[in-house]
Amino acid sequence: MVLDRKILAVTLILLGLCCVVALLTLSTGRMAFSPLQVLDVLTGGGPTRARLVILEWRLPRAAAALVIGALLGLGGAVFQSISRNPLGSPDIVGFDAGAFTGALIAISCGMAGWIGLALSSVAGGLLAGAAVYVLAWRRGVSGFQLIVIGIALGAMLTALNQWMLLRLPLGQAVAAGAWAMGSLARVTAEQAIAATFAAAPLMIVAFILSRRMRITEMGDERAQSLGIRVELLRLALAIVAILVTAVSVSIAGPIPFIALAAPQIARAMTRSAGTTLSASAATGAFLLISADFLAQRIIAPEQIPVGLATLSLGGGYFLWLLLKEARR
């Protein structure tokens, strides 16, 4: 693997910023602790009360924000590379909506527990991705077809999700609606650990395929001349993008715009000509944990779902991106 010094430096800086924001998240709130107290608790010391608040209440949420943000940044980078379009993002083309549909079906069938919701979300995301891929197939798949068909399918699934919410009993509908906004408030340690174990193999596969992915960005014909089976590679990358999106939705619900913005911000910072998976993942982690910190503190002691925070911040970015693409 060839390491670019600039990409490595940007990634390390972003990871350092993630640690700083995580430390702020763990130390602030209704019960405030100094950074030294937090570090003491994280290394096995500290009083019982501080250990309860930091390790059991705050740490799972911060860890989940970092892992899910990295997954969203990675999934967005992979799909933007496949589609060769900055608008190509799992939340734009309906993968989020498909994962949410799977979760709503599980809730409607009375499946209890987050494991059932996680499995149904993954299944829904995979089915939505398969539908987009099959409908976009015309002796191959082009990025423009993927995006247009994905947006159309996402709109249909969103309408279906709204109908299903209206059909649910009031208590289930309120809980599902809150989860649909994208929230890390109820993430447990078990969920954070499960997300980490699910993220590790997906990231490894993505990084293994990254070199060939970068070659395909120069054109299908050139990649084929170098012995790369472009459609098979594109399918494998699409599956990775769908799975990382489904895993994040299964834990925190749909969180918009992180997958869309992180790869573009990473590319601007690294000044790279192609997609950078490591910098995109680190950018996604930084964006999500920063948005979650704001969601917890901006109207304290009340909190807002992190999905609303990313939606508010990402709306302006999405409008700028649309205008930029329209001028191009």
TrEMBL record:
Keyword set, alphabetical order: Cell membrane, Membrane, Transmembrane, Transmembrane helix, Transport
Transmembrane feature ranges: 62-79, 91-108, 114-136, 143-164, 192-211, 232-261, 306-323
Annotated Gene3D superfamilies: ABC transporter involved in vitamin B12 uptake, BtuC
Subcellular location: Cell membrane
Bilayer disposition of the protein: Multi-pass membrane protein
InterPro entries: ABC_BtuC-like (IPR037294), ABC_transptr_permease_BtuC (IPR000522)
Superkingdom per UniProt: Bacteria
Keyword Membrane applies: yes
Keyword Transmembrane: yes
Pfam families for this protein: FecCD
Homology family: Belongs to the binding-protein-dependent transport system permease family. FecCD subfamily.
Official protein name in the record: Iron-enterobactin ABC transporter permease
Naturally occurring in which organism (per UniProt): Agrobacterium cavarae
